Amino acid sequence: MNLRQRLKEVLSVELMLEAPAEEIGDDTPLFGPNGLGLDSVDALQIVVAMEKHFQFKLADTSQAKQVLHSIATMAEAIEQARTPA
Amino acid sequence: MSILQHVLITGANGSLGLETARYFLSQNDAWKVSLGVRAGRQERALALGEEFPGRAQVVHLDVTQVADWQAAVEQATQQQGPLTALVNNAGFHDDALLANMSAGQWASVLDANLNGVFHGCQAVMGGMMRQRYGRIINVASLSALLSPAGQTNYAAAKAGVLGLSQSLSKEVARMGITVNTVCPGYIEGGLPAEWDAEHRKGLLRQIPMRRFAQPREVAAAIFFLASPEASYITGVHLKMDGGIL
Q1: How many domains are contained in chain A?
Q2: What pTM, to 2 d.p., does this model score?
Q3: Contact at CB, B129 and A41, closer than 8 angstroms
Q4: Most buried one in B18, B101, B224, B238, CB count within 10 A?
Q5: Do B130 and A41 make contact, defined as CB atoms within 8 angstroms?
Q6: Residue B27 is part of a domain; what is its CATH number?
Q7: CA B133 to chain centroid
Q8: What is the number of domains present in chain B?
Q9: Which residues contact A22 (CB under 8 A, 6 or more apart)?
Q10: What domain range is B149 assigned to?
Q11: Does pLDDT of B1 surpass 50?
Q12: The pLDDT of residue B178
């Protein structure tokens, strides 16, 4: 299972999403009316889930908006963090 | 529920804190208790720790200090495993009519009774969110609901605890974390020593049950709210006043 698929599964379980994991688009916005429609409490859960399942910690809250935009941006951030400097 | 339960109780050297700790430890072997106490106020908590070896540990905790909270949660977790419950019990009152109340009296009571609860909830939140389970019980007071004269600071703080608890309960409900308050009235063992028999009699006449609460009765309510069985109860303010209000 690749990283994006795993992210979708984790989100589906942790946030108890109605849509099945495989139906979440890589670039579908997580927040806002044109996307999955998640709220700020979901955002909190996503941050915790990224730490718990992917050992990825957001550097600060200013990073959150960019990283938590979509599955694709979350995967990019995790892959970047894993790449040795 | 088969998982081990671990509760941190603040103000654990006082009458209610101690009785609550004892109640948790006496119910079954599944519970471990971390007794949060300030420096110089730990004698009785230490004695309880000796009574229940391996299940009750004292941790230093001044609830008004963020650093103390971080250290206490870390120490408690290292000693006895992840925290599943927090009882924000520490607090005090310093009564005066508002016209005579100093800024220090106002600030210190708000700091211990309200800010301390805020710091505590924050300190345990990450762990509870990660395990998707938690029980937070904030000890408020009947004063939050029936605010008597002379307690503008205490009543404000405890009313603040009700608001904080209810708001937080909505934030974390979907993560399996419940947040409730108990609002005890007068509790034996916690009443001012200077109250004479006449004063106590006057108060008792106001209480339909004609007696003060026993610490154990409040402890039992806290224990229930901390238990897995209270899993669908959140945002509640449990009034325990013998029928006054």
Answers
A1: 1
A2: 0.91
A3: no
A4: B18
A5: no
A6: 3.40.50.720
A7: 19
A8: 1
A9: A5, A8
A10: 5-240
A11: no
A12: 98
